[in-house]
From TrEMBL, chains A, B:
Signal peptide: none
UniProt keyword annotations, A-Z: Metal-binding, Oxidoreductase, Zinc
Metal-binding keyword on record: yes
One Pfam family here: ADH_N
Family designation: Belongs to the zinc-containing alcohol dehydrogenase family.
Protein name: Zinc-dependent alcohol dehydrogenase family protein
SUPFAM superfamilies: GroES-like, NAD(P)-binding Rossmann-fold domains
Species per Swiss-Prot/TrEMBL record: Streptosporangium amethystogenes subsp. fukuiense
Amino acid sequence: MRGVVLHAPGDVRVEDRPDPKIIEPTDAIIRVSAACVCGSDLWPYRGIEKLDRPAPMGHEYVGVVEEVGSQVTTLKPGQFVVGSFWASDNTCEICRSGYQSACIHRVLMGTLGTQAEYARIPLADGTLVATPGLPDADLVPSLLAASDVLGTGWFGAVAAQAGPGKTVAVVGDGAVGLCAVLAAKQLGAERIITMSRHEPRRQLALEFGATDLVTERGDEGVARIKELTGGLGAHSVVEAVGTQESMTQAIRSTRPGGHMGFVGVSHDVSLPGDELFFSLVHLHGGPAPVRQYLPELIDLIVSREIDPGKVFDLTLPLDRAAEGYQAMDERRAIKALLTP
Amino acid sequence: MRGVVLHAPGDVRVEDRPDPKIIEPTDAIIRVSAACVCGSDLWPYRGIEKLDRPAPMGHEYVGVVEEVGSQVTTLKPGQFVVGSFWASDNTCEICRSGYQSACIHRVLMGTLGTQAEYARIPLADGTLVATPGLPDADLVPSLLAASDVLGTGWFGAVAAQAGPGKTVAVVGDGAVGLCAVLAAKQLGAERIITMSRHEPRRQLALEFGATDLVTERGDEGVARIKELTGGLGAHSVVEAVGTQESMTQAIRSTRPGGHMGFVGVSHDVSLPGDELFFSLVHLHGGPAPVRQYLPELIDLIVSREIDPGKVFDLTLPLDRAAEGYQAMDERRAIKALLTP
């Protein structure tokens, strides 16, 4: 089969790779209907995350079940499924508490590579959620978004306790940040402030439910959020970047007693204990337990209440994956969808 | 009046200081019935916190109202009152949300110095809570504990979401850590693990409700907590020290999705973003909004359901305050009560 392999920073190739096979009796093989490039794929692409050897890429996916292992009981070939970037058993104590991304048996999909024609999904019963029948083609991008960016933005908004009566600020205007805006809106937030200076992203933020746009960053961005919130800071802040600047900006934009949800993968971030202490904010984040939200998100998508697929502003055949990486790296595209 | 002044690290003196007077119409003057030495007083005493000039000391207090300013409406001379170490208006939006320690008009009592015969309490209506009548003398230490260590330990336990069905671990065996054990018990925790190797403190932890004692620290302490919790970590961890080691130990002792409440005043702590990210813990802490809990804590004390005053294992007349500092510094006393 064809699949994406990153050989070195900037060197994305689509190559013949061995067809995946059932290894564990709990595995399923899916034919990938759509995959995509994640903001987090850009860390190794840019050389910020070290690459020891050529790596199969991709951890977001929707597709059709081709084959299931002997112990898979809830899925059958022909079903259209959505899964998260962490394979999880969905039965251990940590999964049952809603943290499938820390399942005691978890497997990171990124190590398997879903930017490909087929993919092996470990712990299929726990990981995959089938849609009700085959979805209309125009819903596929939104279902693919649920696999990571929507689920991650949703977790960020939940961690920030976005809800009725709350002012929510979102730091980061990538696909995850934009999905956090959509999530905050769905969760009933009263006011949603997007921090972005990039016109197409600002437009999409407004479509997703943003009520205010802030272009300032760093200390000026914090001052602007304070200005918009009676000097107090936002009740809820979602951080969707992962840098020292964005984390600092997010903490300082949150009012005392408020909640900050951070979902940008941390890179070289160090938080001073005294700043955290005196801020009195609630901090929660990490790799999103997307699996927890999938049934609800699939419902919202299939009933056409939300359209997170709009974050895909570039669609390419799998063989042109390199162009997708480049466009996202140069911020010409918000997110690239790949069709095998 | 007589009052404690710290002149330099290790140099505690009890001196004649000017009697406090009403300055703002919202002030009250109280005659201090009992004050005490706080673990946080040891930071400047040990020279870890810089001291620019001789400083009046103390921020914990109970006492009898002597005089009130013209705008004080809820208090009158003769009432016995308990207050927190932050004076707060208790009416601003932040106070109403339960974060009186971040009141937009807050005043830090430490700058006024309550280790003295009298004290000026700013924002008296918001800050002070009167007991129902004059309390029995044997209740005074417990009411004094409510002023800070109990309220702080309580906040730590609430921030860690201690409650029914939860396993709670407490890092730190000072008065705050011990009060966090008491709080976890009151909040209904199923299992309470105290980390301490100091015999008298271990005994008091057991009296306050600890079910397990762990002597190991650092990585070994974390391993022991994991061992006691099926490899997962505690649901709730209270950090009551404020050092890099204790914060790290607390984060690593918390299971994914669990809650860590940190109330030790942070000193030279730096938290790596990626550790926080991948831990998936909830983090909340800071200067405790003790005022929020005072009515409930006073009820529990006056009805003799809890006896947090047991943390005072040394009582001295105010004039011998220096001995109290020394005993706490050398860990010969858990907490020293001073009677003016």
